[in-house]
Amino acid sequence: MSDAEYNRIVNQYADTIYRVALSYSKSRFDAEDVVQNTFVKLLVKEVSFRDEDHLRRWLIRVAVNACKDIHKSFWRKNVDSIDEIPSEPVFTEKKKSDLYYAVMELPLKYRIVVHLFYYEGYSSKEIAGVLHIGETAVRTRLVRARNLLKQMLKEDWQDE
Question: Which of 57, 132, 133, 142 has the fewest CB atoms inside 10 Å of its own CB, making it the most exposed?
Fold first, then answer.
């Protein structure tokens, strides 16, 4: 297939494939992936088509199969869509909310070690390896971050 022919097919059928994928997946991001994968298959496979209708049906079938593959994938079954995750965390207790926002106000070098240590469960040795700093530096940052958090939260909770 020539480049000109491939470009013509993409220009002519991209919207159709996108709409099919969007109606099946209900996700703009998945639909874009399906369109891309469909046209990559067209480029890689050496399929001869009888006519335009055969080409159109083949593209739609490939798109539908790609949508099905996405929906039955391990990732899809075990991970929530980012569209379904609230942009702000939801807290049941005010103190937890205060703590979260206080951590988010910390300088980056403290915030990252606090997050990795408390939220992700990494040891100070593992954090040192991830951030390429010494283990002592990690522990020092954790101590300083705790002290800053105590000050910030003490002020907030005294105001109440």
Answer: 132
Give Cα 1 distance to the centre of its chain: 35
Using CA atoms, how far residue 35 sits from 1, 73, 155, in Å, is 19, 18, 54
Give the amino acid at 122: Y
Write out the two tokens for 123. 């040891």
Cα gap 34→29, rounded to integer Å:
9
Amino acid letter for position 108 = L
The answer to whether the pTM exceeds 0.85 is no
User: What would the two tokens of residue 60 be?
Assistant: 């739609």
Mean pLDDT, consecutive 10-residue stretches, the chain (160 aa), reads: 84 86 77 89 82 85 83 60 56 72 82 82 86 92 92 68
Nearest to 99 by CA among 114, 113, 86: 114
Provide the angle, in degrees to the nearest 10, between the axes of the packed helices 135-159 and 94-105.
Answer: 130
- The length of the chain is 160
Give the Cα separation of 135 and 140 in Å (integer): 9
Q: Which tokens sit at 6?
A: 């491939």
